[in-house]
UniProtKB/TrEMBL annotation:
One of its GO terms (molecular function) is magnesium ion binding. The lineage of its organism: Eukaryota, Fungi, Dikarya, Basidiomycota, Ustilaginomycotina. SUPFAM superfamilies: Isocitrate/Isopropylmalate dehydrogenase-like (SSF53659). InterPro entries: IsoCit/isopropylmalate_DH_CS, IsoPropMal-DH-like_dom. Pfam families: Iso_dh. Belongs to the isocitrate and isopropylmalate dehydrogenases family. Residues 15-371 form the Isopropylmalate dehydrogenase-like domain. This is Homoisocitrate dehydrogenase. It comes from Malassezia brasiliensis. GO terms for biological process: isocitrate metabolic process; lysine biosynthetic process; tricarboxylic acid cycle.
Length: 377
């Protein structure tokens, strides 16, 4: 995205909180750390190991120590989160550390690009051009986790509260348009005439109150810009579109090239961005950054993959790209771009792929070595 930031400091190390958490997070985050350190133009880093996760909860009774929160808030410039093994059933006293971290640090946007070389075993005619980014609202929707269960004559009844606010929806809409502006500028620099478009993903034909509020709040950002400027304003040249979430999924697989910047409530954004990973080959390739206006925490989109822990088979590319994405948003664009290009070259060569990708037999360590070779050549 090539953002600049006041977080760049001359003369001192950039302090990055490293939160491996569970499963393969402990295997892929050290790879990302070494790649960041080796990247041309990278600043000096001070990496701080911090604890969180379900496995920590099982031992200590807490999934996110206050010390981790305080260290991130008070002395870190950015952070990387590995993966979490949140159980699919209720565990008394447990809550997801990543969900809480997003709230504690006001990381209201989860930005998930899906782009780069396509690594699938589909015939060439089915491989689509993919260059989209999902801007997922990160603090509310069903993720406020207000659930109840009660008995009735017909059995148990479970309810979940879904919260959509004008404030959060407007804020994420503004972030989506800011990302679109950067993508537009980058395309213009490259002579790329592809249109820049923001698509609102919703289901307001059914959820007319909650999704209706999300839809109108995002649209109001665009309309207010035009009204303020008496016509085309800062967002001139950006198209605004909308798509129902079910047809969004259908079109995403049929015509991914029609999507550019997608802005969505928390749940929809989570689902469609995970699903979009299939378009490029694997969740092991897809990065994200959790963003406030001043703090950025990279996070690979994949889970903790307990079935392959300790087998040296985890794909580290999502973690490496997440580190680059964090650096990019912090303003360190040169090392970020160098990392992106090195990863793309490794994928295009197709010789060093982990088993989650078609024909892949490489180990985590071998992928790291390949990326470092390309980074330093």
């Amino acid at each position: 995205m090539r953002f600049t930031s006041a977080l760049m400091n001359v003369g001192r190390a950039v302090r990055i909180g490293m939160i491996p958490a569970d499963g393969i997070g402990r295997e892929v985050l050290p790879v990302a750390e070494r790649v960041m350190t080796a990247a041309p133009g990278a600043p000096k880093f001070d990496f701080v190991h911090l604890d969180a996760g379900f496995e920590l909860f099982q031992v200590t009774g807490t999934s996110l120590p206050q010390e981790t929160i305080d260290t991130l808030k008070n002395s870190c410039d950015g952070a990387l989160f590995g993966s979490v093994s949140s159980p699919s059933h209720k565990v008394e006293g447990y809550s997801s550390p990543i969900v809480r971290l997003r709230k504690e640090l006001n990381l209201y946007a989860n930005i998930r690009p899906v782009t780069g070389p396509v690594v699938t075993d589909l015939p060439a005619q089915y491989q689509k051009h993919v260059d989209m980014v999902t801007i997922r609202e990160n603090t509310e929707c069903l993720y406020i986790k207000q659930e109840t269960q009660e008995d009735s004559p017909n059995g148990k009844i479970a309810r979940a509260t879904r919260q959509i606010t004008e404030h959060a929806s407007t804020r994420i809409g503004r972030k989506a348009f800011e990302v679109a502006l950067v993508r537009k500028a980058m395309r213009e620099q490259e002579g790329n005439k592809a249109p820049t478009k923001v698509t609102i993903c919703h289901k307001s034909n059914v959820l007319s109150v909650t999704d209706g509020l999300f839809r109108t709040s995002v649209r109001s950002v665009f309309e207010a810009d035009k009204k303020k400027n008496g016509g085309p304003g800062r967002y001139e040249g950006i198209e605004l579109d909308e798509q129902l979430v079910d047809s969004m999924v259908y079109r995403m697989y049929r015509e991914p090239n029609v999507f550019d910047v997608i802005v969505a409530p928390n749940l929809y954004g989570d689902i469609i961005s995970d699903g979009a990973a299939a378009l490029v080959g694997s969740l092991g390739l897809v990065a994200s950054v959790n963003a406030s206006d001043t703090f950025f925490m990279g996070e690979p989109v994949h889970g903790s993959a307990p079935d392959i822990v300790g087998e040296n088979r985890a794909n580290p590319i999502a973690a490496i790209r997440s580190a680059a994405l964090m650096l990019e948003y912090m303003g360190y664009t040169d090392p970020a771009m160098a990392i992106y290009k090195a990863v793309d070259r490794v994928l295009l060569q197709g010789k060093t792929l982990t088993p989650d990708l078609p024909g892949g037999k490489a180990t985590t360590a071998e992928v790291e070595e390949a990326v470092l070779r390309e980074l330093l050549r």
